[in-house]
Amino acid sequence: ARGGQLAMYPGTQCVSLLLSALSGVTPRRHKSSAQRQRIHKNDINESIESVRRRKETVQRAEPPLSYICLLQNADWHGFSTDPHVDKWNMRMVFFCGISMSLVLGSVFLHYLPDHGMRQWARREAERQLKRKEALGLALIDHNYYDPDKLVLPPQDD
């Protein structure tokens, strides 16, 4: 008898009937069409009431401050409700945020220490060139080190 009932119900209802048969709980009976219509009308009435309540709360709610400020001042920047103070604060923020950071950032980068020793190496090279010109030596020697000062290993034959 149970197998015949399962064949009548498509999809997930078969699973619920099977589980109810295993657990010993009788499945819910289908409601009559009159009961379904009453439930459907109740659902519709409840949803209409909830929409009415939502409309009432939306109509009673005050608009946000940003919307009011935008209506009063089309060039509102979000700093103040007063248009003059709003414009002044916007200009100060952009001046300090952009102009000052570019100027102070450039000064900071310029006065960073020379960790790569590039400036020192150039000055030292210029000093060596001036010294060699004054002594009349070749500016570039073919021996990087003085060969007399190099200690070489003994030559074994």
Automatic annotation (TrEMBL):
Instruction: Report TM segments.
Output: 92-112
Q: Does Transit peptide appear among the keywords?
A: yes
Q: Does the keyword NAD apply?
A: no
Give the signal peptide as a residue range, or say none if absent.
none
Membrane topology, as annotated: Single-pass membrane protein
* UniProt subcellular location: Mitochondrion inner membrane
The protein's UniProt keywords, in alphabetical order, are: Electron transport, Membrane, Mitochondrion, Mitochondrion inner membrane, Respiratory chain, Transit peptide, Transmembrane, Transmembrane helix, Transport
Please give the GO cellular component terms listed in this UniProt entry: mitochondrial inner membrane
Tell me, how does this one assemble? Complex I is composed of 45 different subunits. Interacts with BCAP31.
> What task does this protein carry out?
Accessory subunit of the mitochondrial membrane respiratory chain NADH dehydrogenase (Complex I), that is believed not to be involved in catalysis. Complex I functions in the transfer of electrons from NADH to the respiratory chain. The immediate electron acceptor for the enzyme is believed to be ubiquinone.
Sequence similarity: Belongs to the complex I NDUFB11 subunit family.
The name under which this protein is listed is: NADH dehydrogenase [ubiquinone] 1 beta subcomplex subunit 11, mitochondrial
- Origin species, per record, is Leptobrachium leishanense
